Amino acid sequence: MAEEVLSQNEIDSLLSALSTGEMDAEELKNEEKERKVRSYDFKRALRFSKDQIRSLSRIHENFSRLLTTYFSAHLRTYVNIEVASVDQLPYEEFIRSIPTMTILNIFSVSPLEGRILLETNPNVAYAMMDRVLGGRGSSVSKVDNLTEIETTIMSHLFEKALDNYQEAWGSIVEIDPILEEFEVNPQFLQMVSPNETVVVVSLNTTIGESSGMINICIPHVVLEPIIPKLSVHYWMQKQQPKDRDPGEYEALAKTIKGAEVDMKALLGESNISIQQFLGLKENDVIRLSQQIDRPMTLKVDNTQKFHVQPGTIKNHLAVQVLEDYRGEAERNE
Question: Which of 230, 235, 297, 300 could bridge to 55 as Cys pair (CB 3.0-4.6 Å)?
Fold first, then answer.
């Protein structure tokens, strides 16, 4: 059982009450001896820890950002999607909480078993469809009589959005979301038993001037195989660098050694005006900033790396490396 930690102010107040007689130490001892009973609803079993719920929240916060980017580009209008809440409750309770007529997308997430439900408020769904068809993004609630064309447009829109869901889960498990069913009446939908615990992720969604909720219902049977991966310990362990195979280091070093780089020996620099540049003619002399008693600079891919001195090898111009590059201030020290 979790212990309650008191703050310093609460400890001081408690000691003050005991010293003044406002509280009796014997009464406190008797209260501790009394058996504490806490009610538990077996129909609302909590099968996920707070730690696991926080992990699911992080995953879907990433999904909401990806979904915002996707819909913004696809619909060409203002889109904002944020995680409003992540709760666990019985499946029956979730079905009762959504409208009697709404947009329901049921998709599988192999290799995980079971299916996930993505419920979209009609205000949001119709605003999306209106934008796809070239409208302003206004919402019309007529879910009960969707035409075949409207059904195809909506299902295609959410099917493409599932690629973002795959990416959001990539750090935990590789899934392949596939849209299997498109429904408008939740009463015709029975994914799991009514008392099955599900995680419901609610996304607060704004499309243009229309707003509503997108709810993602994930049954416990889907998450059961990967529950250990939802702990903070797994996340921290995964972030730790793994020991690389020595053979990989050798192969990497061999590849890097074969890479070509651009090297330039900088003879000197000078600044002149455009007028002076246009007036240049044969035998004119441009004064450089480089002093003859100072070493030249060798650049590797435009990065100053070495101090060098010029010379020749077998009638070819060459430079000899003297030392690693240091700035002007360092050389003067």
Answer: 230
